[in-house]
Amino acid sequence: MAVSRRKFLQGGAAAAALALTGGKAEASADSSEMRTKGLKSSTTICPFCAVGCGLVVSTKNGKVVNIEGDTEHPINQGALCSKGSALFQVANNERRLQKVMYRAPGSDKFEEKSWDWAMDKIAQRMKETRDKTFKAKEVNKKDNKEYVVNRTEGMAFLGGAGLDNEECYLWSKFGRAMGVANLEHQARI
Ligand code: SF4
């Protein structure tokens, strides 16, 4: 009997699967469950792009040990692209920056700073920038009349795909309360 190349490969793959599972073909269906058995699982959203794929993150003693697509999520139904599939390497990577590194204006080196220091510095600079650039009123060039604008063009806000709906809402409200007119989202750029 002639065996086509495709049939031969299909037969080989089936034989390999049976050999790996000790002859129990159904074991492969449980492999995800077996990988994460006894671990703490939580769901989150992929931070990379605006598709917003759902993920299941498994942790042991506070350390991420597995990340995979969330089969219950309506957007990706368990599938992930190559970037999302590689998220585990972002969580566990010795090259990942975990401390605040600050380079002062004109300096040629970075200094390690605390998170409290960084938050205070950002708040202080935002306040300074807003105070310097805030306009309560502006003359419209078209009709030469003055209008209330209450805005600053001295800074911009950029949202990211890692934010969920509620966070985006708060982010945009905060930006508008500050008078920021240049408010964008990474997904639109
Ligand atoms: S897994 Fe890929 S497609 Fe899905 S949100 Fe992440 S980067 Fe976008």
Compact overview of the structure:
The protein is an alpha+beta fold and 189 residues long. It has 3 domains: 30-96, Phosphorylase Kinase, domain 1 (2-Layer Sandwich); 97-125, no CATH class; 134-188, no CATH class.
Written overview of the protein:
The chain has 189 residues and is α+β, with helices and mostly antiparallel strands. The chain folds into 3 domains: 30-96, Phosphorylase Kinase, domain 1; 97-125, no CATH class; 134-188, no CATH class. It has helices at residues 5-20, 31-35, 82-85, 87-91, 115-133, 165-178; strands at 40-45, 54-60, 63-69, 100-102, 111-113, 135-139, 146-159, 180-185. The radius of gyration is 26 Å and the shape is elongated. Iron/sulfur cluster binds at residues 46, 48-49, 51-53, 76, 80-81, 83-84.
Offer a few descriptive terms.
alpha+beta, 3 domains, binds iron/sulfur cluster
CATH architecture of the largest domain: 2-Layer Sandwich
Strand order of the largest sheet: 1-2-3
Number of domains: 3
User: Overall pLDDT, averaged?
Assistant: 86
Low-confidence stretches: 17-27
Helix content: 25-40%
List strands and helices in order, with pairings.
Layout: H1 5-20, H2 31-35, E1 40-45, E2 54-60, E3 63-69, H3 82-85, H4 87-91, E4 100-102, E5 111-113, H5 115-133, E6 135-139, E7 146-159, H6 165-178, E8 180-185
Iron/sulfur cluster (SF4) is lined by residues 46, 48-49, 51-53, 76, 80-81, 83-84.
